[in-house]
Amino acid sequence: MEQSASDFISHAPGYWNNEPQWNDWRWQMKNRVTTLAGLEKHLSLTGEERAGVLLAGTKLALGVTPHYFNLIERDNPNCPIRKQVIPRIEEGYDSPYDMADPCGEDSAMPVPGLVHRYPDRVLFLVTDRCASYCRYCTRSRVVSGVGEQELHTDFEEAFAYLEKHTEVRDVLLSGGDALLLSDERLERILSRLRAIRHIEFLRIGTRVPIFLPQRITPELCEMLRKFHPLWMSVHVNHPRELTSEVRDALGRLADAGIPLGNQSVLLAGVNDDVATMKKLVHRLLMCRVRPYYLYQCDLIRGSSHLRTSVARGAEIIEALRGFTTGYAVPQFVIDAPGGGGKVPINPGYVVYHDKEKVVIRNFEGRIFEYPEPGAARSIPRHDELLPI
Ligand SMILES: *Cc1c(COP(=O)(O)O)cnc(C)c1O
Q1: Catalytic site includes residue 134
Q2: Which CATH code for domain 106-344?
Q3: Whose CA is nearest to atom 8 of ligand 1?
Q4: What is the domain partition of the chain in residue ranges?
Q5: DSSP letter, residue 226
Q6: Which residues have C-beta atoms less than 6 Å from ligand 1?
Q7: d(CA 1, CA 334)
Q8: In this structure, are residues 167 and 161 in contact, taking their beta carbons and an 8 Å threshold?
Q9: pLDDT digits over 324-342, tens only?
Q10: Which atom of ligand 1 lies at the shortest distance from residue 116's CA?
Q11: Ligand 1 atom 1: the closest Cα is on which residue?
């Protein structure tokens, strides 16, 4: 029988045998798989993967928590989890369009580590480390500590900039992953931000609840709830990532009053099909997470093997909208190469539009007309209405 959205599987020790410290996030971090030998202890690698691991040392480090590693299907070379975290030889190939900084962040930093692209909000890069490394990382130039650049966030200068810039009402903490900071360090940063009167809205972009659900401790949740309104965007690409441990971690965050959104990246052979995406968005709702964005994969160096067409993304959205819960449908976006910011990409529901009317297509393909206000004879005049 088909597994339903409410059937959550636990991925307790599979490659690791009854590890007593399994639920300790520090143990998970210390025991990450970071080397070729570590990988080969558990999996037989293909030549493409082995060569990819050797490359990773100078581009984007290999790192996978035991929790996430356990989701890899041992004998499936096309496992969607494997593709996200195990390097491949193709990472060494840059397509002509690939860029080190595809979203043009470095040129939008008034202070090192602070990206101010949009009028009223900023992206604050608070660390360069993650619990595990996604092979398509949009910030691989600085993330993981082995790439071509280093992240040198100037915290004091960033706070000074934010104090001065009263137009900033929304600060997004990212990195790297902000939830890898200690509770104390994160609390100090959040307190500094909350002390700035004009900053209304705080959010954290994190994949820790998925890579390292053990880190979502009751203590962390108690600390975070002091900073409301605080929202969180998590990053789940495949329904398999939503295990019962992850669901429970997300539940603890939701119980702390943190509204949860999800940002997925459209990835070839991982989630670029309707069935997978539908299962993912349904299961996200079961975890109290609202699908927020579906990203077209950035033109990051060495990621062309993971990219899929924009048309495919639009097709997926078209297969969701109307066919399922509106809350389950993310906004598909392209982060415009070179620094244009996020641009929404929508299936063509507007068939025709002029001053008089808009002709629209619904999810079933039926055509409707909506008259614009003031359009000649668009709305029946009073004397044309039938008496009731
Ligand atoms: C994505 C992003 C934001 C947040 O954008 P929202 O659409 O508000 O979620 C802010 N700053 C930068 C630089 C970003 O890339």
Answers
A1: yes
A2: 3.20.20.70
A3: 121
A4: 106-344, 350-384
A5: G
A6: 115, 117-118, 121, 123, 172, 342
A7: 36
A8: no
A9: 999 999 999 999 999 999 9
A10: 13
A11: 342
